[in-house]
Amino acid sequence: MVTNFDDTIVAVATAPGNAGIGIVRLSGSNIDEFMRQILGCELSPKQASFKRFLSHDGECIDTGIAIYFPSPESYTGECVLELQGHGGSFILDRVLQRCNELGARQARPGEFSERAFLNGKINLTQAEAVADLISSSSLEAARSAMRSLQGDFSKSVESIVSNLMETRVFVEAAIDFPEEDIDFLSDPKLLERIIGIEQCLDELVKGARSGVILHEGLSVVLTGKPNVGKSSLMNRLGKEDTAIVASEAGTTRDVIKKQVVMSGVPIQLIDTAGLRETESEVEKEGIRRAWSEIELADHILLITDSDCCCVQKLESVWPEYCARFPNRTSDVTVVVNKIDSLGCTPGVDHHSSRVRVSAKYNLGIDDLVSQIMKKTGLSNKSEGNISARRRHLSALNEAKSFVFCAKTQLSSNRSGELVAEDLKMAQRELSQITGSISSDELLSEIFSSFCVGK
């Protein structure tokens, strides 16, 4: 059902600055009057027409292409008029002012997409995918945003919601008809079904986590003792001399950051001060900052130049990190550098997952990049990654925890009401992702981050 708004909104839909083409977009219920006043006629639906754009006294402001999309066959679901003229800022502003004179209100950021959502043209994940597609900074990010825009993410969520609803109906029927001789809650197929839902959520969480990384970028911290080659590796991965390289230990005192794209993934490389005991106050501050970056990083490269033939656990190699972050050992890749002087071959040690490289001679660097992609879950990017945000990931994890509780309740022969309630809460969390259940505050926060004109 199309929602009717009383006002007509207008905005420049192209980026600020001078360009060959600029687009002014209107959406609302009285577009016919705008066509008559600005173009001097009404347009046939969905046909491009070359027209003059007229001022109130008939002066030609600009010439260009005008296209009319009738409701509900438009992006917003309302009547939409697009005026595609020359892209000079002054000209676009004159066309915009003419629309304002006729009663059109300046659109808020994201208001066109918000109206599309409210009119049922797109769901919330598709609306967010629009913004992600516009802001994508790599090929994989653009591909994942397009998959979400085409509905891949929301279809997966809706499939799980549908399965949850059917399972809830089964559980609640067993509660409502206790006089039946058959104990439906003890049926093993019910437990199997809940386990299946949990597995589907697991897969979706992995895809969403990868999607968040593609949207926000992956932060990778290079750390280790002084003079093990962190800065050399930073320069090799970043493909330019960003960090100072010297034989003197403790060259890097501050945090150095470099934005790169590896295997289609935006990555922020962060070089840090060498970790060691020191009396230097400046170096102590550098080490403190290094630990702050380690705490926030998505992945950590621990650089060492020790003998790579020794197979040791991370607890032995880096006990301080394991003591601080006992649940994050999987976020670390040990990189053995300077293999040219150690007599080791480059590549991944599959027993210890260490990567042997020589930053100086560019050996094993491709293996290191592949290992980073593998350990962060981005090694199979072409197999259906979706554009996702942290709110999606949070909702998926909450839903997963409720489904786990339902499974536990059922396995322990607890009350059917508790199982039903857990399934209901899981369904509610997932419904917030697509916007079938949403608050005004959430919608305002999401759409306010969009471009004006989108």
Number of strands: 13
Helix content range? 40-55%
What does the largest sheet look like?
Answer: 7 strands, mixed
Number of distinct helices: 16
**Beta-strand percent range:** 15-25%
Helix-strand category: alpha/beta
Describe, in plain words, how this protein is organized in 3D.
This protein is α/β, with parallel strands linked by helices and 454 residues long. The chain has three domains: 9-122, Gyrase A, domain 2; 134-214 and 387-435, Four Helix Bundle (Hemerythrin (Met), subunit A), CATH 1.20.120; 218-297 and 299-375, Rossmann fold (3-Layer(aba) Sandwich). The protein has 16 helices and 13 strands. The strands form two sheets. The protein has a seven-stranded mixed sheet with strand order 8-9-7-10-11-13-12, sandwiched between helices. Strands 3-4-5-2-1-6 form a six-stranded mixed sheet, covered by helices on one side. Helix 4 packs antiparallel against helix 5, helix 6 runs antiparallel to helix 15 and helix 7 packs antiparallel against helix 14. The longest helix has 29 residues, at 188-216. The chain is flat and about 80 Å long. The two termini are 22 Å apart.
Compact description:
By secondary structure, this protein is α/β, with parallel strands linked by helices.
Which key terms come to mind for this protein?
454 residues, alpha/beta, Four Helix Bundle (Hemerythrin (Met), subunit A), 3 domains, 7-stranded mixed sheet, 6-stranded mixed sheet, 17% strand
